[in-house]
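User: For my dataset I need records formatted as: sequence, then structure tokens, nothing else. Please produce one.
Assistant:
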Amino acid sequence: MSVIKSVVRGVGSYLPERVLTNSELARSVDTSDEWIVQRTGIRERHIAATGELTSDLARHAATRALADAGLVAGDIDLIILATSTPDQTFPATAATVQAQLGITQGAAFDLQAVCSGFVFALATADAHLRTGSFKRALVIGAETFSRILDWEDRGTCVLFGDGAGAVVLEACDSAEVGERGILTTHLRSDGRHRSKLFVDGGPSSTQTVGHLRMEGREVFKHAVGMITDVIEDAFAATGASADTIDWFVPHQANRRIIDASAQKLGIAPSKVVTTVDLHGNTSAASIPLALDTAHKDGRIKSGDLVLLEAMGGGFTWGSALIRW
């Protein structure tokens, strides 16, 4: 019996021109390139220019994803933009991107799950497409985290960067696409951990934007267990395993977390896509940025089994398994 599946048709990304290296950071905060690389694996990150907004990054990534899919903006009837750094409190940055692309049909909205945002948005788009409510979706992760960093806090300012990534999903009949498409998604959250990673501002609480605050040791302590939890669920739901996946594309937060998670799951290092060294932690943008990198350099090919995972403030965490 045929069913509707959400198939990846295209992928694209965008990084601001400005590159901030560890050595440059060390001139303004008590740190060093060696200290940052040893603890995080990060060597540089991109920073949005003055006046360059999250919607600008998202639009560029979306345009490139559409080109990769061989589609035009008018083919899209759903936009879900995962971000923790919207242009404004409202309207949704997704609606701004919709207007910039010239799309006048369908729906556009933001989704906020911090670093897990792209996986949450992917699962949400998949659910809408499979019901037949929409035909094609742009799922975007875009962030300008540089705008919410305390640049005097070496424990956080060295970790994050700006960027955007996007995928085009299309609702397809399984009789036509076979095994391709999103096979399973698993989402979790636990608000008891909110104080371990948060922003100390907001319209309702302080009427300010605030700055990112993090208890790094606590986040690291919980990360590996939470990540493996949802990946094991994905394996159980599909019969896949560490041996049968072709690529593991984790949230690019910290090289030590990535390596520890892959090791615990028995995923070979050669299957792990890592871009954290060049991008830093771009929150909801990190997975689609890494996907686009591996797609463009020829690693991820049609038919490959691709495993995604992320964890973010809240805590939120989730996984997705895709037949490319």
